Amino acid sequence: MKILGRPGTVSGLMMRTGQFGFAAASISAMLSSGDTSKFTAFSYLVASMGFQVLYSFALACLDAYALKKNRDLQNPVSVSFFAIGDWVTSMLSLAAACSSAGIIVLYLHDFELCNRSHLPCLMYEISVIFAFIAWGLLFMSFQVMLWILASFSNNPHL
Amino acid sequence: MKILGRPGTVSGLMMRTGQFGFAAASISAMLSSGDTSKFTAFSYLVASMGFQVLYSFALACLDAYALKKNRDLQNPVSVSFFAIGDWVTSMLSLAAACSSAGIIVLYLHDFELCNRSHLPCLMYEISVIFAFIAWGLLFMSFQVMLWILASFSNNPHL
């Protein structure tokens, strides 16, 4: 079965571009909010999104190269590497996005600090929303890789 | 390829038992820490783990029934249902565990409130650790379901 988002295809390249685009947007929003170093979760979000930018950009370059040179990236070894990379990166991104979201809910809803203090809550929120979108796209890539990997192991003649 | 944790097998039943066991332990630890209603993230953790207890317990019963009656649960329709259920539940659990972990890190490390106040930080930590283990087991089940599902779609003669 041919599914969208396979490595070395236009849809795969678009998915990778979306991943590093939203991750970069999340970092910009967080850094533009000022000093984030006093919150471990927000620093971790920046670090994790930074890692996702590097990872997704590298794979986008690989997809673009494969498209240009007409190379096939869909062999068990490279798909295994992509699957492991996607899995690790997506878990890091989701953990970062959720822990930051937890703190925003604590500030915005539980303690209502956003109305009373001068915290840039809106920028924090925008950053976390972008982080969730970046994670969602990466998770879709991961599921595609797992699907391709399963199809290799179930079709020994491939 | 036969992998561990398939529905209707002893390993599948053990994985489901572990899932609801750790989820229940996480709820007990959180509730024994006292009033959690002032923290949205902790209330959400209890709700999400409660959902996982119900879900995993129902599937453990189904596995036990299939084992006793020697029924085969590995058909495309039921595996699709298990995969969707596992996916939704595991995302809810991970989001809950990460957002609670974010708050614990904020309290323990960033503001060092745990030493100065009488917050039951240790019980919060134990609860979150159990939640992460419960999520890990559920995520393994989800990957097994996805693997079986992919093998169905790639073996049309099955």
UniProtKB/TrEMBL annotation, chains A, B:
Q: What keyword terms does UniProt attach to this protein?
A: Cell membrane, Membrane, Transmembrane, Transmembrane helix
Task: Identify one Pfam family in the record.
Answer: CASP_dom
Q: Which family does it belong to?
A: Belongs to the Casparian strip membrane proteins (CASP) family.
List membrane-spanning regions. 44-67, 79-108, 128-150
Which InterPro entries does this one have? CASP_dom, CASPL-5
Chief location of this protein within or outside the cell = membrane
The subcellular location is: Cell membrane
Q: How does it assemble?
A: Homodimer and heterodimers.
Q: How does it sit in the membrane?
A: Multi-pass membrane protein
Q: From what organism does this protein derive?
A: Punica granatum (Pomegranate)
Alphabetical GO CC annotations of the entry are: plasma membrane
**Top-level taxon of origin:** Eukaryota
Query: Residue limits of the Casparian strip membrane protein domain?
Result: 6-136
Q: What is this protein called?
A: CASP-like protein
